[in-house]
Amino acid sequence: MKALRIVFMGTPEFAVGILDAIAKQNQHEIVGVITAADKPAGRGQKIKYSAVKEYALENNLTLLQPTNLKDETFLSELKSLNANLHIVVAFRMLPKVVWAMPELGTFNLHASLLPNYRGAAPINWAIINGETKTGVTTFFIDDKIDTGAMILSKELEISDSENAGELHDKLMVLGCDAVVETLDKITEGNVITTIQQETINIKTAYKLDRDNCKIDFTKNVTEIYNLIRGLSPYPTAWCNFKDGDQEFSIKIYDTKQEVEEHDYTVGSIITTKKEMKIAVFGGFIQILSLQFPGKKKMLAHELLNGVSFSELAMVF
Predict the structure, then answer these.
(1) Which DSSP string corresponds to 250-305?
(2) pLDDT tier at 281 (50, 70, 90 boundaries)?
(3) From 144, 170, 278, 309, which residue has the greatest number of CB atoms within 10 Å?
(4) pLDDT tops 70 at residue 232
């Protein structure tokens, strides 16, 4: 049984859950943590630490924050940690000089059932595309993105009502189990990998941007519903709102879908004193929470207490 000296690489909250699971297993030495450089965030542009940095500082772990992963000073510092295994969770693409450095290699935890949903936003796209199951996969890193030899996968069901935030939390728990099990296999020397099969039907987890987060009201009710929950609570689906001379963009967080035939114009907003919904192909999207420019996120019925819309109000 080989003692593991681990360098962990990650940035967001998802990675923190995995790092904590490794630490609490109390079987291996975490000799270093690598995370993103500090950067200004928010309206005040205050310097913000990554979630992984916060954890490393709280737990007195050796921390490196390189801006260039090929920088000679960083590589020298990394080598001096004398790790025999690197673990990557939600970090960034590594140069070969980094992932090939440790004796036992570098493995990544990815929040999908590879080879599907390689890329930056696997949790979001699984919901957006209406998948009924997803999971996590550990694999040894190679010179491409999320293509390396798989060590193990674990899967779970996606309910037709959960959003990306809820699925994120479930996958983090599942990911902890997958990483601990992968470490056990590496420690015991019984890793059997599986090469990812390339097919034309592989689905991709494209990076999310303003364009692919915009609601397309030419799609049907279920596709729109899946997009909204797949982007909630972050980065959030959005659309344009128009009522008379008012026109601006709004964010939509939580909805329900109502599948039924109707004669309303697509994009029409229908309101009562307590309910707000949008007419789309094949039904209605009932708005549960949303955000107007310069306002906080609010429940739809709270908005309707103080705001009324004309019969011409539309989204597009």
Answers:
(1) EEEEEEEEEE----SPTTBEEE-SS-EEEEEBTEEEEEEEEE-TTS--EEHHHHHH
(2) very high
(3) 278
(4) yes
Query: Distance between CA 247 and CA 259 in Å, rounded?
Result: 28
Q: Per residue in 62-90, pLDDT tens?
A: 999 999 999 999 999 999 999 999 999 99
Architecture of the domain whose range is 5-188:
3-Layer(aba) Sandwich (3.40)
Euclidean distance between CA atoms 78 and 54, whole angstroms: 20
Check: CB of residue 88 under 8 Å from CB of residue 98: no
Start-end of CATH 3.10.25.10 domains in the chain: 221-315
Is the distance from CB of 117 to CB of 203 less than 8 angstroms? yes
**How long a stretch of residues is the chain?**
316
Tens of pLDDT, residue by residue over 146-161, are 999 999 999 999 999 9
What is the amino acid identity at position 221?
V
For 221-315, CATH number out of 3.30.450.40, 1.25.40.10, 3.30.310.80, 3.10.25.10 equals: 3.10.25.10
31 vs 307: CA distance, rounded Å: 56
Q: Please, which residues bridge with residue 153 across strands?
A: 137
Backbone angles phi, psi at 60, to 5 degrees: 55, 45
What's this model's pTM, rounded to 2 decimal places?
0.94
Between vectors from CA 31 to CA 69 and to CA 194, what angle results, nearest 5°? 70
Q: How many CB atoms are closer than 10 A to CB 75?
A: 17
- Asked whether 51 and 57 are in contact (CB, 8 A), the reply is no
Distance CA 75, CA 66 (A): 9
Bridge partners for 278 per DSSP: 269, 285
